[in-house]
Write a structure and sequence with these properties.
Layout (H helix, E strand, L loop, with lengths): L1 E2 L2 E11 L2 E9 L2 E6 L2 E3 L6 H13 L1 E15 L5 E14 L8 E7 L15 H12 L16
Parallel strand pairs: 2-7
Antiparallel strand pairs: 1-2, 2-3, 2-5, 3-4, 3-8, 6-7
Length: 152
């Protein structure tokens, strides 16, 4: 969702065993940049639903959200103010099937390996590094912080 240059984004670190899934984006604003599956929250859409939808669209995987590392507020490389809600998920179904045209690659890696990536290889490197730092320090919060959306 975008309003007056503010973009709301849901992002998910999907874990399987001790590995996390990262994807290489192939979008006009992020060509060959590694990121967690993520995307814009649509108008009227529940944040938790948006996170699961984006994972499914980009990776083909279904996830259960089990925690959050928090909310990140930053100015993007496209000069939008981004409010990013980052979640932790575990796979519950589906199979890895990358969104054609949007995602060019994926890999399962240890979280600490993300620290070694060069900034130019990451989408919004300062934000990803904050998320990784929270994951490594286990600064994880309950998903119950997010209340059910009330739509009139």
């Amino acid at each position: 969702m975008s309003q007056d240059g503010i973009v709301l984004v849901a992002s998910v670190s999907i874990f399987s065993d001790d590995k996390v899934l990262i994807i290489k984006e192939n979008k006009p604003t992020a060509i060959n940049k590694w990121n967690f599956p993520s995307g814009r929250i649509e108008y009227g859409e529940d944040i938790l639903y948006a996170a699961r939808r984006e994972v499914k669209e980009e990776t083909g995987l279904e996830v259960k959200l089990i925690g959050t590392t928090g909310v990140y507020n930053f100015i993007s490389n496209t000069n939008d103010q981004v409010i990013l809600f980052h979640f932790i998920g575990e796979g519950t179904g589906g199979s890895l099937n990358l969104a054609e045209g949007e995602v060019s690659d994926s890999k399962w890696i240890n979280v600490n390996e993300l620290v070694t990536f060069e900034n130019q290889d990451l989408r919004e490197p300062s934000v990803i590094k904050q998320i990784v730092d929270n994951l490594l320090k286990e600064n994880i919060h309950s998903i119950s912080l997010y209340n059910k959306q009330l739509i009139k």
